[in-house]
Structures
1.
Amino acid sequence: MSLVTELRQRLNRQRGPLGLRLTNALTSAIEDELIAAGEALPPERELADDLGVSRSTLRLCLEQLAEGGLIETRRGAGHFVSRRILKPVTRLTGFTDDMVSRGIQPISRILEKTIMPVPPDTAFRTALPLGTPVFVLVRLRLAGDEILAYERSIVPVTSVGEDYDGTGSLYGRMDRHGGRPKRILQSMRAVEAGPEIADHLKVKPSTAVLMIRRIGYGGHGVAVEDAISWYRGDRYDYVAEING
Ligand code: 16G
């Protein structure tokens, strides 16, 4: 079946505003690899005509896909399916936000969840008083069935509530309690995956992965998160716009 026929079917299978249906249709077509990574999308005018949508609607959808990192737009050359996940470092988002904005279903496997007094190294990094009860959440983060990261987040219990069971988005939960971080300090470095991390990420030991440390601060400058994550280095591109 041609790409256009597939896209038309995907458009018609959904309800809701045309722009949203078009974004979903294109997202799912890319996810299902109907257009492979690195391949070009049909030219804008042709695609708009074939799908019976206006060029401006199509362009808005393409902008959204580009913003989410699913496609890359090269001036004069067209739109290409990204080979990697682009993550802007300037936006304060969590894993769920990043996946949802790309039309990907985020999945978490909880490996550990405990309430305990703040561990001394976290207290040292965050200046949380010793003895502060914290929620420790260790998760595998997946996009569909693909493991992208292994992550340990430590947050004060007051930020999530004592009855938090660790499911769903941590930042979503924080939004409904003390609030997600408003400012973060983040460091990132490439490390070789040791046996444990390699096993979690299902990569060969010694594969290069991104180790990211994040300390998040709430409104009054009090730390609300101490997290360490290992992201698949071959799936993530951190991008930053730097103004001089
Ligand atoms: C991201 C954050 C992590 C945060 C999580 C919340 C990085 C390197 N880490 O993975 O610190 O806890 O998002 O995601 O970006 P959630 O809201 O989906 O649980």
2.
Amino acid sequence: MKLAGIELRRVTMPLVAPFRTSFGTTSVRDVLLVRAVSDDAEGWGECVADSSPLYSPEFTDGCADVLRRFLVPALLRHGEMRASRVAAALGAVKGHRMAKAALEAAVLDAELRSRGESLAEHLGAARDRVPCGVSVGIMASVAELLAAVERFVAQGYLRIKLKIEPGWDVEPVRAVRERFGDGLALQADANAAYTLADADHLARLDAFGLTLLEQPLPAEDLRGHAELARRVRTPICLDESVESAAQAADAIALGACSVVNIKPGRVGGFLEARRIHDVCLAHRVPVWCGGMLETGVGRAANLALAALPGFTLPGDTSASDRYFAADLTEPFRLEDGHLAVPTGPGIGVSPLPERLSEITTWTEWLPARGAPNETGDRQRNCGDR
Ligand code: SMG
Ligand code: MG
């Protein structure tokens, strides 16, 4: 595939309600989109970084900068490009996995669209719909939390994930378990808010039959997670700690986790995400698809991934209306606790043109050498309205 250029684009999308985790609160998504344009197709990728580097070291402005200055030039240096070669083409740049993932996703989408193949088919999907859970933020009171969980259960979500932090853990988990009974699939996510010194406290969560406890300790602390896993009965799941298939293999070998949350953005792309799935499947470690408050563009691609055979637990792949009053694409709707896996070429959805131009705050076109409209200077503007 010959690329004509790459467009970077920022869109702003308010959430229907603020989402609070142990590291901060998100009220508005400031999303960086990548569009790869080839001779006969265009493809979309969504960068999942948040505007502040609190979940991980990456953040939206940083991603835009590293894409513009290093990643896109490294990609466009090659005359011919295909998605399976993107990671190698970007390999000299260390880290920056969310930025790399967005670029690879855009190239992959363009490539698949040009040959009429869906991402789900390409990745090896085993089902046409995926079971969905929902991640419920930290609230001002237990009463408010119970009301939120009640709404999600009524909508049909198949499992609830509670965000926890020191001071908001045992009591909210107990309250939800007592109100909704043992039949509710329930799990908790600490986003690295504890230390191993909290092991006895975290063991109190064992009483509530959680499916898993996600990322209790700092990302680097694999040994601590292994020790914690010996001291609590709740299965430990890793999110922030796993950035590659090699790290997943290490975490499993160390006994640091017995479940893995897979997010393509965190691990540098859908192809690495699939390798993590393969490693986990080979070790009989269940995986599920995480979420980063994606728009319909990122969600569509996540659904294709979540359809792989090793994804045996419901993901944080919730319906569009859990996040936005108006999504960037046709909305994904929950049916019977599931979302349908898109079947069209590539990710199977596209941004709605009017919606896209309405919420765009900035675009930049980075042309390939010799491509049409190369002017020597880059286009920067405030939206394309
Ligand atoms: O997309 O529904 C979603 C969010 C799921 O809880 C979620 N994501 O650590 O798993 C996680 C968090 C990270 C993003 S918080 C802004
Ligand atoms: Mg998490």
3.
Amino acid sequence: MTDLSVEVCGLRLRNPTMLASGVLDETGKSMLAVAKAGAGAIVTKSIGRDPRVGHPNPTVVELDHGLLNAMGLPNPGIELYAEEINEAKKSGIPIIGSVFGGTEEEIADLAMLMERSGADAVELNLSCPHAKGYGAELGSTPERVESICRLTRGKTKVPILAKLTPNTSSIADLARAAERGGAHCIVAINTLKGMAIDPESRQPILGNKFGGLSGPAIKPVGVRCVYEIYEAVQIPIIGVGGIASGKDAIEYMMAGASAVQIGTAVWTEGTGIFGKVCKEMSKFMKENGYATPRELVGVAHPARR
Ligand code: RRO
């Protein structure tokens, strides 16, 4: 089997696949199961200061080529969640704690608490498209992205991953801002803002009306975003959005991602997806003369950095 290990912003991964935030990551036990299935790292559900029930049902709509969700940041709050991190850490793979907050200070403080809870890195959720006062509402301007990253950098020692929104005119500008603010890595992309209407009842289906689209439908958007970000910053990028095969992962890596995250395909296909993606990556690499995953990164660019 090809050696798939990679190093991304100081995190050593046995392979470039990570569990994306939001699927099977609310409990330590479910995260251990994902680790056992072969993921290289795990990103936790986005955690806030206080417990939160999330948006009213329905919170997920299954579509032909993806999922539309408006979970609404349900989580038990940082204090209780520390126990889950503790449990997940028994896996031995890096655990990346995702945090969200309503102000710049709150996000930075939560990142600090996440680090104290034992997370190996923090992912700043600057991009949830449908939670009033959170996520993309704070992460849509370069100025705020920069200052959130700078504040967080001042309060933490672990690597900072900035997860950005594609619902913007220039994700490259947001990435540059995160890099200026001291983020160690960019994660692209979060979900695309969308909605679904039931023609019979003439009603929006989601309890929150609007939600975030994920899955195969958004892969070309994610690949384009990673490609643009790669040309804009020097820090590494983690690609996410619609990855369900080795070739999907390789596409993101050729666009410039050093590693990838998988979310919706875990929902649709189960935890076996990590082993499947790695096996397919190995096969492609062997057949095409790539010795390490690193050799794939950015090769789709005319002038590779
Ligand atoms: O919880 C959610 O509704 C959610 C989050 Br935090 C996010 O970042 N992206 C998304 O599509 N849903």
